[in-house]
Task: structure prediction
Amino acid sequence: MMVEEKKTTERNKPKFLRTDWHKKIRLGKGVKKNQKWRGAKGRQNKFRLGRKGRGQRPKVGWGADVSIKNFVEGVKTVRVENVTELSKVGKEAGIVIGRVGAKKRAEIIAKANEMKLPILNKFKMRVEEKKEAVE
Result:
């Protein structure tokens, strides 16, 4: 008898950072959002050549396993942008609300709660809502 395990997205993948990111502030030494991958272009660049001690480069093998792809918190994800798309979602899936306005977002959240579907990005709030929540 096989017990069905919860799907997990944990894997041993390094954070891919560009060459000399730790030397320049604008490359994200202190600001994580500026830590972006850019491929090394130089002719004699040791990072491009894959020399030891220079960190890993993104390659085909680093992708997620097929069995856990498109899973968040062990739940299969479906992107939803309106209420009609929400009605087509199955019971076992969780939803991710796409880029929509506040009014449509509220409608989708109300309908999803009614259908008892997990919303995986429900707590993404606007700046005004954050200020009200703090006060």
Observations:
- Helices lie at 46-49, 83-87, 102-115, 127-134.
- Strands lie at 71-72, 75-80, 94-97.
